[in-house]
# Entry
Amino acid sequence: MTFINPKTDFAFKKIFGSNESKPILISFLNAMIYDGNPTIADLEIIDPYLASRVPYLKDSYLDVKARLAGGATVIIEMQVLNVASFAKRVVYNAAKTYSTQLIRGQGYFKLKPVIALTITDFEMFDHDQEVISHFVFKEKKRLFDYVDPEIELIFIELPKFNKQLDELETLTDKWIYFMKNAPSLEIVPSTMETVSEIQQAFAIANETNLNSEELADLEEREMFILDQQGVLLKGIEKGIAQGREQGIAEGREEGREEGVALGMREKALEIARQLLNVLDNQTISQTTGLSVEDIQNLRKE
# Structure
């Protein structure tokens, strides 16, 4: 068997956001948010999976959105590319989801918690080696919660997860292993067969269950990700090379740091050029971290 890559937005929505995915999503969220405890008994997938009609464009920044039985909203995003200002975008999406619950005239008491679950295929926090990081509002010195946790940010950093199949013990381990390694597997591992929801996820991820249109869409998205990863690498390499040249005159360490900065900007500019025909200036600015003026200048090139 060949399994599609759940790290692409198409596959992620297909596995976790389709009409048949409810038990899968419940198991996944219990593993990612509640340490595998059956805290979530029921939920509603707010935006069922619909394939995008616009090539190379994510359906939205939020791959899957669900409302839990108690009223809390969970927004889930799988992010492969480490784009500029991504950390700010996560906070923005969580705050926007929280603030747009009310219509004019409604009281604040109607607001329900928002949990933003973000799975990344890159390291978000270089100074820390834990796979899962969970952020809430707390008093800065004494660390008590700000009333109830109204907005929570949870990050799963896949590159930091290094357990092998024979080391998988918890439901959390098994789901993270699925997210990271499904495309490299040929069968459902015996250590994961005991979790029926993971078996269902593998069944949805089986390429033989996709039609030709879905396979073509998946291939295009995977190629786009590879192209963008190449852009990032090329930009960083170019920036480092420029930094080295300048470092000869201004000092090796200073040149290296400036080179990385130049490379990151070059990366952002290349990504912005790819988006000029499909997004407005403000959205491109938020996505890449470039100024609106930078985007306007790119359109004049």
